[in-house]
Structure prediction request, 254 residues.
Amino acid sequence: VFDEAAHGASAIIAWGNCASSGCIQGAYPNPTDTKPVHKIISGKPVINVQGCPPIADVMAGVITYILTFDRLPELDNMGRPVSFYGRRIHDTCYRRPAYDAGLFVEAFDDENAKKGYCLYKMGCKGPNTFNSCAVIKWNEGVSYPIQSGHGCIGCAEPGFWDAEPMYHHLPDIKGFGIEATADQIGLGLTAVAAAGVTAHAIVTNIQKRKLIKNQMDNDDINKEEFAVEEHQIEREEKRLGQKAHKLEKDKDNR
Ligand code: SF4
Prediction:
């Protein structure tokens, strides 16, 4: 039936994760040997409009693009239209400042959840899911899962049913980010200098974290306290700047 239906088509749109990558029936151990459309058909372009389900506006957008421009949209390496699947949900998520500041929900009913902190530790798949949910949203722009307090389940990615389970509390993020303290940064300064990150950026990030936290917690900023801290940050910035400079010089001498 599929071959017959596809016969005269110039291109095929595979709607949703089932058609694009097999979805739940293709999950391990895939007892029915489910295959996505692009593995059944050959010789025709297949556009994977991913998601479980795909966003209605994206579905309409893909058809509108083809009819308006009389050509197929640019696709990524998974056959998804780049204009809708070109960015990670994490890159457009309104909770991203909380992630950058290291402010995380630790349990679904904790205070941090009420404040709208980042859902990464609750298993949010936004950092490795490419889709437009955070921009176009759902139900005529009303909301999207993260806005409703639930992490992204990664439904626009192949094999998401077999991925690391949701609700598996993820550990603290290691590495260098806005959440690092000045001392941690000081210890890792060689790597920082090598990466071309300036001391200014580091201390600005520490300051930013505080501002983000204040804003999300609805705390009033104590201006006097903040001015004192700003002064301390400036001093710290100077100290780290000198240290980075010395490290650079030592490296040149070697
Ligand atoms: S809630 Fe998810 S997508 Fe949003 S910033 Fe946190 S990890 Fe990224």
Summary: Confidence is low (pLDDT under 50) at residues 174-190. The first strand starts at residue 12 and ends at 15. Residues 223-253 form the longest helix (31 residues). Residues 182-253 form one domain.
